[in-house]
Amino acid sequence: MKYSFLIHNFYGVGGTNRAVLNLATALLEGGHQVEVASVFRRLDRTMFDVDERITVVPLVDTRPRRPDRSNPRHREPSTLIPETEEFHLHYSRLTDERIVRYLRSTDADVVVGTRPGLNLAVARHAPEHAVRVAQEHMTQDLIDDAVKAEIRRYYPRIDLAYTVTSADAAAFRAGNPVPGTRIEVLPNSSPPPGVPPADGRSRIVVAAGRLDPIKRYDRLITAFARAAVDCPGWTLRIYGDGEQRQALAALIRELGVYDQVQLMGRRDDMSTEWVKGAIAAVSSERESFGMTIVEAMRLGLPVVSTDCPVGPREIIDDGEDGLLVPSDDLDAYTGALLTLMRDDEVRARMGKVALANSARFDPAHLAAQFARDCEEVLTVRRAEPPRRPRAGRRVPRSGLTRSVLARGGELLREPDLVRTLADPVLRGIAGNDLARRASMGALVRLARVRRVRGTSTRLQQAIRRRVSAPTDGPIVDCLVLPDFGLQWSVDAATCAGEASVVLRNRDTREVVQVALAPAVDGLRHVGTLAAAALPEGRWNVYLMDGQGVRRRVRPQRLDSRFLAGGPDDGPAGGLSGVRAHVPYRTADGFLAVRSWVRAAHAEVRRIALDGEDVTIAFTWHGPGIPDGAVLRRRGDRPESLAVSTASATDGTMTMLVPLAPLTDLRLGRYEDWDIFLRQPGGLDEVRLGRFVDDVVDKKRTYNYPEIHLAQEVELDLVEEDPAPTLRVRPYYTIDSELSIVVIDRP
């Protein structure tokens, strides 16, 4: 059979896109044809990697300098998508025409809508021969009442309606009954991960999702801070980006867990991040399904989750593969975290059960169920007499004038227009005499811009970087080995003749080459780079064929779990120094490696701040024992401050940096002080840093609070300020070395 999915914007990111892609790929593997009709195309290529056998059909191309972008019909409001539908302002008369034209002309056997407005379009305009399917990826309580009224009106023409949970299907049947339409449950699927599962031995709690208030990461951070009092060796990593990043960073500093809780940013592939953890955490107020729960369980992590009205309770078997706690009970959530953080045996047992239970979300299994349902509808239809075509409601073609705005088939005059605009800024513009005389099309476009700009700036930047990455470069997997060497893996079809991986130093142009050889199964070519074979530096990675042609590679899976959190016994190399190699994805989508090689090294383990001192715990990897430390002012006005070091009972060493003597030495308004360890015997000084973990951008990830000093120091050399603000903050440089900044400015 041929399946056609109608989706809002298949070129972007999002849970619906990922769920549709997983199902479409599984249907393809099952021998079916698959086509995806994306209403919008805003990028040159899709953010997710799509099987080339899936046909992607963009209906409206709004990329820069494309005719659709300036088409006057795209400035007229949609009458096909309900006004109260969340994305109504994205749609227009142009999208209406293209959607209807596509639906009436498709030869697909099954036509699938993927959000309420598009489901209604499928119900009204999909061809009579096709199975009409409506997928609901949001819960019923999030669908507007006016949209529900449209559902009751048009869904009798839908053959199959799917929700992602049983609870939501029951809510659909009870609260919005549609006679004659089968309502079924089809959970979102998660493909088998391409990396081995987690072993549960780490001390990391992992959470992932957009940084949005509904995710309640504030609750998770607070609960973890309480649990960490009894489990000081644990850390919490939160992956994602969004509007709450600054607020969450402030909460982390306020609770004093800045060295245990990290905001990691967004990742294209979470599978290699889940495996770094021992526990997955979900703290949402509500979930439509809980895709991150399935992803974590498929990699062997037990999950601690709030018991949302729908979603988690249908995935997690409480007490077997995870723990469910009431949404509003912070003490219960803290207790659930402690249960798994304290007990290695319970955590390992639940992880194994999670791995086994999550197999039911395999795309092949769910796609087979979906195909059977659609085949049943077609079988019944073939046995029935031909149905009389029912004409759908005609899409109005009313024009758009300077002072008239078409809405839902009506013409709204100037006095009524202001009342229809919900956005207060747009309402103010529309109420202005000059704006009322301007084109209503410009006002509609502004409304769309304001809605779209709700996406975080960092996410928009990530999208631009992702789509600007090369599309034809070879794909390489990279694994950090337990001995801190690197293993490269390339699809055999990519390797022509004698291929090798080449690393080229960005600064020195030095080249290191790793030969590739066929793996046992013959499907991939593999090469290993010993930890001692790569000097310090930043290295770009290339694939070179037998003819000597080099092409820069893109990473697929970067498995650096052995670096996560730093090794328990210190950096690789023991007392002889350190070698650490961290593979990472560059901003433009290429693969690179950051390497540190030091004959002697002081690795930062913990930093504690109070109002008078900065206490730094570190492990020493070099000859002898340091006989002290020194802080040196960076720049052309050198100065130094000597501090003592001491050995701690846990095998680490500590130094105490007093802030008052440090600030007494300041000569400017902004000064950086670098920290060195003094080697015994008058050897070279050694920079203090954090090299042995999987984080390349430590300056952003490890965000320490400022210490505000109350005392006012009068110095003739410093420009006086009527209200000076003296602040001190430790930070990591771009090379992951620890420094302290002193700021004397408002």
From TrEMBL:
Any single Pfam family the record assigns to this protein: Glyco_transf_4
Ranges for domain Glycosyl transferase family: 198-353
Gene Ontology molecular function: glycosyltransferase activity
Gene3D superfamilies recorded: Glycogen Phosphorylase B
The keyword Glycosyltransferase appears for this protein: yes
Chain segments annotated as coiled-coil in the UniProt record: none
Glycosyltransferase subfamily 4-like N-terminal domain ranges (all copies): 13-188
Record keywords: Glycosyltransferase, Transferase
Keyword Glycosyltransferase in annotation: yes
Name used for this protein in its record: Glycosyltransferase involved in cell wall bisynthesis
Annotated organism of origin: Micromonospora rhizosphaerae
